[in-house]
Design goal:
This protein is an alpha+beta fold. The strands form 2 sheets. Strands 1-2-3-4-5-8 form a 6-stranded antiparallel beta sheet, with helices on one face. Strands 6-7-9 form a 3-stranded antiparallel beta sheet, with helices on one face. A hairpin with a 2-residue loop joins β6 and β7. α1 packs antiparallel against α2 and α2 packs antiparallel against α3. It is elongated and about 75 Å long. It starts with a helix and ends with a helix.
Length: about 220
C-alpha cells in the first residue's frame, strides 16, 4: 500500500510530463468527428492498488477480531467496524471493474466539449462557453473552460459513493491536469486554441487536429 501511495505522489506531482501526442486521437463520438485527449490509466491503477490494499487490511482485521478468544471483551464491535470498512473500500475496485470509475478523457467536437472524469461526465457547447483559463483549482493544476451562468449544461455522476473527482459547482469544464499523461501546457493550449478559434473547430476529428498536438504548440 505504501508503494502505491508513493508511486501515486510521484506520478501526479514529480514525474516529468512528455508531449505524448499518442494520447490525442481522432475518432467519432456519437457519429460526430471528434478529437479525444485520453486520461492516464496508470493513475487509476495506482489508486486501485491503494484502496484494494486497504480493503484487504480491514478484511484481515475483521477476521482476526472474529477469531479472537473469549478473553477479548466486546470483540464484535471492532470486528463489525472493520468489516464495514472492508466492504466500503472493497466497493472501489468493484466499481472500477464494472467501469463506473475509469480513466477520464476530454473529447473536442465541432459542436462542443465532452468530459468524462473518473466518476462523472459533463458536456457544454462552444457557444455556452464565455472563456477559459489555467488555474490552481481544488489544490491542483486545472484547465477551466467557463460557461455562462444560464448555459445548458449536461452533467451526470456515475457513482453513489467514491466521488473522488466532483462536478464543479457552476457550469464549466474543469480538467484536472494531473489525471492526464500529456504535458499540461499542451493540454491547456489544445483546449484554448479551439475555444478561441471557432473557424478551426471544423478540423476536429481529422488528422489536422492530431498534427497540432504533435507539433507541441497548437497555435
Amino acid at each position: 500500500m505504501l508503494f502505491f501511495v508513493a508511486a501515486y505522489g510521484y506520478v501526479t506531482q514529480l514525474a516529468p510530463r512528455r508531449r505524448n501526442p499518442d494520447r490525442v486521437i481522432a475518432l467519432r463520438n456519437n457519429n460526430e468527428p471528434a478529437t479525444e485527449i485520453r486520461g492516464s490509466a496508470l493513475i487509476i491503477l495506482l489508486v486501485f492498488g491503494t484502496v484494494s490494499c486497504l480493503a484487504v487490511f480491514f478484511g484481515m482485521a475483521a477476521v482476526d477480531y472474529f477469531q479472537a478468544g473469549p478473553d477479548v471483551p466486546a470483540k464484535q464491535i471492532p470486528a463489525g467496524l472493520c468489516a464495514v470498512a472492508a466492504l466500503y473500500f472493497g466497493s472501489f475496485p468493484l466499481l472500477v471493474l464494472a467501469g463506473r470509475i475509469r480513466p477520464g478523457h476530454v473529447v473536442l467536437t465541432p459542436n462542443g466539449i465532452y468530459q468524462r472524469g473518473w466518476t462523472f461526465s459533463s458536456q457544454l457547447s462552444w457557444e455556452a462557453l464565455a472563456g477559459g483559463k489555467a488555474s490552481a483549482y481544488r489544490g491542483a493544476p486545472y484547465v477551466l473552460a467557463i460557461a455562462y451562468a444560464n448555459a445548458h449544461w449536461e452533467r451526470r455522476s456515475h457513482t453513489p459513493v467514491w466521488k473522488i473527482d466532483k462536478l464543479p459547482p457552476k457550469p464549466m469544464i474543469a480538467i484536472n491536469c494531473a489525471a492526464f499523461a500529456i504535458d499540461r501546457n499542451l493540454l491547456y493550449h489544445l483546449v484554448m486554441f479551439y475555444l478561441n478559434n471557432p473557424s478551426a473547430r471544423a478540423e476536429l476529428g481529422t488528422e489536422r487536429s492530431i498534427e497540432r498536438a504533435r507539433s507541441g504548440d497548437p497555435r
